[in-house]
Design goal:
The structure holds 2 protein chains of 2 kinds. Chain A is mainly alpha-helical. Chain A is 74% helix and 3% strand. Chain A has one domain: MetI-like (MetI-like fold, Orthogonal Bundle), CATH 1.10.3720. Chain A has a two-stranded antiparallel ribbon. In chain A, strand 1 (53-56) and strand 2 form a beta hairpin. In chain A, helix 4 (77-108) packs antiparallel against helix 11, helix 9 (170-195) packs across helix 11 and helix 13 (262-272) runs antiparallel to helix 14. Chain A is flat and about 105 Å long. The radius of gyration of chain B is 25 Å and the shape is globular. By secondary structure, chain B is of the alpha+beta class. Chain B has a 5-stranded mixed beta sheet, with helices on one face. Chain B has a 3-stranded antiparallel beta sheet with strand order 8-7-9. A two-stranded antiparallel sheet of chain B has the order 4-5. The chains are: A mainly alpha, B alpha+beta. At the A-B interface, helix 2 and helix 13 of A face helix 1, helix 3, helix 18 and helix 19 of B.
Chain lengths: 306, 442
Amino acid sequence: MTHAEAAARETAPRLKLSTKDGLLGALLIAPTVLIFCAVIVYPLVSAIYLSLFSIYTPTLKGSWVGLDNYAALLASGEFWNAFWVNVVWTVGTLVLQVVLGVALALLLHQNIVFRSLARSLILFPYFMSTVVAVLVWRWVFNDLYGILNHAMMWMGLMSMPLDWIGSMPNAMISVILVGAWKYFPFVVISVLARLQTIPDHLYEAATMDGAGWWGRFTDITLPQLREVLFIVILLRAIWDFKEFDLIYLLTGGGPVTATQTLPLLVYKQAFALNEMGGASAVAVLMMLFMLGFMLLYFRYGRATES
Amino acid sequence: MTKQTFTRRSALLGAGALGVAGAMAGTKPAGAQGGVTLRWWSTQSVPAQLEAYKFQIAQFEAANPGIKVVFEPTSNETYAAQLAAAFASGQVPNIVTHLPSFAVTNYWRNGLLEPFNDVIQMVGSDKFYPDANRIYEVEKGVYGGAGIGGTAANTLWLRTDLMKKAGIEAAPRTWDELRAAARKMQGGGIYGAPLPYAKNSMTTLVFICFVRLAGGQVFTPDLEVAIDSKEALNALEFYKSMRELCPPGATGYSWGESLTAFVSGATATGLYTGRVLANVVAQNPRIQDSLAAATYPSIAASVPSWTFNDFPSIFIPKAAKDMAATKKFAAHIFAPEGYIKQLHAAPGHVLPVLKAIADDPRYLDNPIISKYPKEVKLMAENSAAGFNLGFESPRHKPNLKAGDVVNSGVIAELVQRVCLNNEDPKKALGETAVKIEKIVKG
């Protein structure tokens, strides 16, 4: 290689190391971006797009209606009823999950007999398939053969079997109870994990200062659990708000529309009324409600923290 | 010779390339495995029926090497949603059986079905009962599907031992008699009737029976909405009055729960097809000699009875793959040996649509059919004269929107509003009529 050739090569445009790293970075992150687009962006854009049409579900054929689906929904009593039912269900089951979850986590944090076994068994409802869980509960609630009615009649609490899932307010109470039973283990494991990292000396110091169990709980345990509870409540609120299978299988949204939440309304619009556009509009509105809730929640979280 | 270096970057690139190569190697073009797989959906799938289907499938697969048939159960309450999703995604089954006839006309109207004429020809159109497939003639000379059986879904089942105990001598003929009989027989842990009050298709279909039994109609013969009538109001009032004679959990009853309530002995009367016979014999033989079937009573002796026959169907989605094999299998379902096994799986529940089968000694040679000849005969007669919302009377035009009306659940909601929520029946009926009107026009 002559000196001139070497000089020419040195002056030729070459990619800098930082540019190469940047390209490699983009290449490596590309699969994640593609997957994100496929599983998040595409369905989201599709749902918004579909909500602007009147579409017959089996054929997916339809016509452009613009914002008519939204206008019809916002003007319909059924939509607002479903929204209210959704709020009642979410708040009811979430409160029970958190109270029950924290209480049991505190219990399982103590030195009790068979603690390991109890910690394993507590997860059982969470691991159980929803279909199986609902079948079991339907059997428990059954008017003719269910153990609940039999037990209550045997104890003399009532003379005739009670309709647990077909009349109000029993149906809503039953759904909330079953939901709390199914999902409280998530709160238990999250809170228990955090409880195990709270330093013992905090409790020892508080005890020496004369704090009782309630004082230790409110002044040490609860503040230490604040962060984990913040996340747990956020996640469970999102999951409970969009819960479908448990409610659908237990009551089908009835009686009439007394337990019909927004996800059940989506299903009804899409597959009972074959109105995919209307169903998509409900789904989009659900997403907006959740977004609004999360923004408020984060703002509240930050305010409390500061 | 240059020195080879192995950096983290080259390792990542190599790993990525290996991943892509691995993924490519694991991908085979569709159809590369060869063979044909047919998917068969049905709403009828109790164990005895599954056995019969297995037999039919094995016979077909043995005669047609390279073709595999997979059975997938669906249900009366879920088929509409499952098929809507299947049609929308293009992942349709090859054959669907036992759906009510109005589902066929509904899907045909939307261009989703393959004409069934070839299959009818393969079976032999002269082998069907005359007019058995008239309801499926969706266009002149074109059939959207065919009947696979007949049913008498609102047969009134009675416990003769309880009737005797209550001093009831004959089967009730009118609603007043039915209510009085149910009231007399109720007690000691036994309820009068297992009528459904749930938010499901059974409630819709059964209440349509009551509207017809009151002398009313849901649609006029020209398919104008006619449910907002005095007759429908009478039906609602009677249905509401029966609530106290039904188990508390009837608010969640579908076909299965209603059947079990009667078979287990929890109710004195029942409303179901002939499946009652096989279930009583197998599950509660204690009452097998105290069973009687009757035509369901109407509001008054002057109002003729109306049997709900959902005309269980067989059809092929247009988007089904391997159409020749699909049609061949559809015709095979009617082959006598397997078809009789299907019918015997629930004797009296699904009644034959082929003339030769009804008289076939192999069909008649069944312990349940032999034990209850009077009941089976009654159901066969009622089924032959039966109707449903897609075909309300001989004067009615075929109702292509019947499936949409049933699946929408508005009629079940009407029942719940009036019978459970004590809403004003007149107002609820008027609002329901408007909703049905909207569905029909939509």
